[in-house]
Amino acid sequence: MTSKLIGRITNIIDPGDALGEVLFGLIMALTWTVGSRLVFEKEGLNVHDLIVATIGCNVAWGIIDAVLFFLGTTFNKSRRLRLFRQIKTARSESAALTVLAKEFPIAEAPFSAKGADADALYRSLLTLARRADPVKTSLPKRDLLAAIAVFVLVSATAVPAVIPFLLIDSAHLALRTSNLFLIMLLFVTGYAWARFSGGRPFYAGMTMTCLGLLLVAIAIALGG
What is the C-alpha to C-alpha distance for residues 198 and 201, in angstroms, rounded to an integer? Predict the structure, then answer.
């Protein structure tokens, strides 16, 4: 069931984007729970306020992230349309190839390509662009679903943070459990990241955990 759910999510949104949103949500939740532990030692902990604040923060940022994701997707599509028009109106074939090379630099690709192969690729793209017709930028259902997925991923990361407070009577123990649970999820996120990218899962999990905790520490230190 879990694999099917992951498969559905990655069919809607890029795995890297999805995991990035999960990481962001976990960091936001940890910032609240770890920061609350510091307050707890001095002033006492209001569990209700912490639950409301954690969920509210992640939901708010889920909405913001979803809107930004949608705007970014729309921007990229409009930019591609502009590129298409530049190719169509290029004064010469060499000018059109220069536009393509600037937009899709082979030097940044994770492989080494010969000059002749790169030229052949750009010429193929040029042929495709010249034969194609422009498509009006619209609001595809897929982009809307992807934005909704972003909102759900960021918002849902607040759930593991608040569950311990609903199951454990001791606020101190619940807070420790919540922090531990979120830290474990940081590791799981890094592990999954490596599974999708072909890296080493354990090392990626440890790296993601350390990076997440570092970002949480920075956020708390800066008053976030």
Answer: 8
What is the distance between the alpha carbons of residues 15 and 150, in angstroms, rounded to a whole number?
11
- Residues 122, 100 contacting (CB under 8 angstroms): yes
Q: pTM of the full predicted structure?
A: 0.78
10 Å Cβ neighbour count for 19? 23
Pick from 139, 124, 127, 134: which is nearest to 83 by CA?
Answer: 134
| Domain edges within the chain | 14-221
Across the range 177-198, mean pLDDT stands at 90
